[in-house]
Amino acid sequence: MRAVLFAALLASGCKIDLDKADVDANTSGRTCKVSTATVCKEAETMNVSDFTWIKGKIFAANCFGSSCHSGSTASGKLDLTDDPYTALMGAGGTGTDSNLAPGHKRVVAGDPAASYLFFIIHGLDDNPGPFSDPPANVGYMPMSNSTLCCQKIDAIERWITAGAMNN
What we know:
Blueprint: H1 2-12, H2 38-45, H3 51-62, H4 84-89, H5 116-122, H6 150-161
Helix pairs in contact: 2-6
C-alpha cells in the first residue's frame, strides 16, 4: 500500500510526507490530501506563474464562501474579490504585512517559507518559517472549507517561488 501511495505521489508531483497521518482539516498539524478532482489534477500542470488560475480556481472556490474574504466587511479582514494581487502584494507589488502576523509579509516573492499565505494554507506543525500558530478564532485556511488539496497548495508554492507575478 505504501509503495502505491509513493508512486501516486511521485506521479502527481505533490510534496507531502507519507509518515504524517491525515488529521481533521480544522486543526493545526493537518496535512493536505492528493485529490483526483478535476481542478486538483489541473493544478498539477498549471503554468507556475499563472496568478489568474490561482485567483479563479483556488480563491474563488475556497476563499469567498461565508463572506470570509469577500467585500469590505469580509470576516477574514482581507478582501480578495476585486484585486487579490494587490491585497496580497501591496500596491507596489513588493508585499504587504499580514493582519495576523505583523512584521511578516503575506507573500514574499521567491520565498514560500517566509510567506504568511503559504504558512496559513499549508498548516503543518513542521512548516518552516518564522510563524506561530494563527489565532484560535481564525485557524488555518480555508477556515470554512476543507483543507486544500496538495496540488492546489503546490500551485501556490510554485507561484510564490517563481516570483509571485501578477499574470
